[in-house]
Amino acid sequence: MEFNYYKSFVDFKYMSNNKNTGVDQYLHETQTWVRALDFYKQENAFLKTRLSQVVDNNSNKDFLAQAEHFNNRFLFIDEYIKELRQDTRMQIEMIKQSLSGNHLQDNVMIGLQKKLRGEMERFENDVYTLKNEFNKKLVIYFDIS
Q: Which domain covers residue 138, as residue numbers?
């Protein structure tokens, strides 16, 4: 079952009442990560489709080995996205609790926010690097000058 991020955002808007607190900043940042993860999931699906198209027209063993390498990395990205989505769901629940007045887990929420911020930064850099490596390999394969 997919998590309904839109419904959660509507709940937050209602709950935060535009207080402009640190928790509101966490909410904004988490919403940004959720949208980014949705984008990266689509982008990764596009890259896997492109890889499949190229593999269908090539039987070169060296290229197929490279293709398998990229496919494995794309699958890893899918798993990483799932983990980050789980972490953002947990963070959303903690933010909801804090915004509703339950501050028992605020220290955990703050720690998770910092952890997620670092993970998202590394993840986005990894995806950027992978996409560039993949595109460069395809340009070399097609000998485009």
A: 23-142
